[in-house]
# Entry
Amino acid sequence: MTVTPIASHQKSREITVSYLGGLLFNAGFIDEKQRAEVDSVDKQVRAQARSSKSRSDEDATSPFKALAAMNLTDASGHGTRIDDFLLARLIAEDAHLHFFKIDPLKLDVEMIEAKISRPFARKHRMVPVAVRDGKLVVSVINPFDTVAFDSYQQMVKQEIEVVVSAESDVMGVINEQYGFRASVTKAERDLNRGAIDLSNLEQYVKLKSGAEIEASDAHIVNAVDFLLQHAYDSRASDIHIEPKREHANIRFRIDGVLHEIQRVPKLVNLAITSRLKTMCRMDIAEKRRPQDGRIKTDHAGKEIELRVSTLPTAFGEKMVMRIFDPDVMLRDLSGLGFYEDELKIFNDWIQRPHGIILVTGPTGSGKTVTLYSALKTLASPEINITTIEDPIEMVHEEFNQTSVQAKVGITFGAALRTILRQDPDIIMVGEIRDAETAENAVQAALTGHLVFSTLHTNDSATSVTRLIDLGIQPFLISSTLVARWPNASCGESAKTANATGRSRMRKPACSTCRLPKGSGSSSRKGPAASAAATPVTSAAPEFSRFSRSTTPSAISSIVPKTSSRSRTWPSSAECAPCDSRHYASWLRGRRVSKK
# Structure
């Protein structure tokens, strides 16, 4: 990107609420009445700024936050959201500069530390983001602070180029990326002196704000808080802490792809791991066997749960934290990425009084999100919903949730037998793994219960042969399984999209149907439009013949297993629906030729 140097002869001035209101008014985003309200707020913010003394007060008097708190509506009628990104674009246009969207995953944190001190960055709200052609590219909030630019250029002894970025982007880099490195450095210094205390045992953890973190001397605690805040703001679904020979890698899974975020010294990694283990009540002295735990934190006014797992490796304990955001796990069905006809069919399925609904797909394809969203839709005071999970993914007060505990004999099959005596209306089984669970699930469906569950198969058609492999008779499958094949392209095994951006499956293109695997059509609307249709249980129309097919071989002749299909039918399709459509055509042609 080509950026324009800031004119050093311009007079330095501050950005005020009134100035931002003028930009919005001139661009047609607010009317005269709203402009008058903005001017009134500007006077209040100025008075508050004169009396502010602490850094938290300075953040509270930010003109961007003051304007956002007004919840202004777009007077132009286009529905444009008035936020700090829109304001940054208008400021860049007014200053004849470029707007720059900061991607924290592409920043060189070591370069930031070397080029600018954190106090200077916070005071002038600026951060270097790149070096191009020998020039230092600096993202700023206020492009009219020419005094700060002149001082900074003398400090770095390098020509700088200025771009305008949103306040949330700039301050996010300073508080999270930069703050984490500072905490790690101080922690390493303290650990070398053996002066760290990790004795705090807590299950519910209230994360501190940026100002509170800075006021504390517990650097490991600060580093962990920065790490979790950064993961939440990045919309990560998983946090990986992987020990190596001399250091440890910290990686976030964002939109299905792992990104390396930080590298920390091995000594600091041991302390971070111990801190996280105490937070989720693990045994910090046990390092030879895997452990599991949970942490509940808060972020932006909502509670977020993390499921923590440790695994001994060659260089130490590897830790993975799965982030369960309630806005992601418990959503409206219309926000899952269904086609309109699919949504209608799925709603008809879950409203049935009895039967089995299976959600299939590979790991991370959105099965749990689909199940929880369906249960949330059905939850009411008139219905008893009971679940058996391993472990409980998201605690919800409207469900009666039970966790598998093999040590005391609570398995999926045993718990399901007990649940049937608890007068349930709807039962959710986390996964059908064995013959006992499958048999009990089928019996529950036959006795008037609606059963939700998952199977680890790559497509919905394979779930039928999987149930047969577990010993379920074909006529029972025909009687209980709610099954129909959807007319969606590439929608079977892809990750359900979510408005917050957390997803774990990548979306490569399918060369057969020319659509991203799991993508919807161009007519889809909303944040979920770029991702897949929800993976739902489906079956081909031929499955209605189960009642007449009493042997597994008869079923296999209709839907052969993947291994046998690959020997008899050379499929070139890259996604399950394309594969199934082509196979159906091939099968029909084969039957005609036999006749």
About this structure: The chain has 22 helices and 15 strands. The chain has a mean pLDDT of 75. The longest helix spans residues 167-192. Residues 433 and 455 are 8 Å apart (CA to CA).
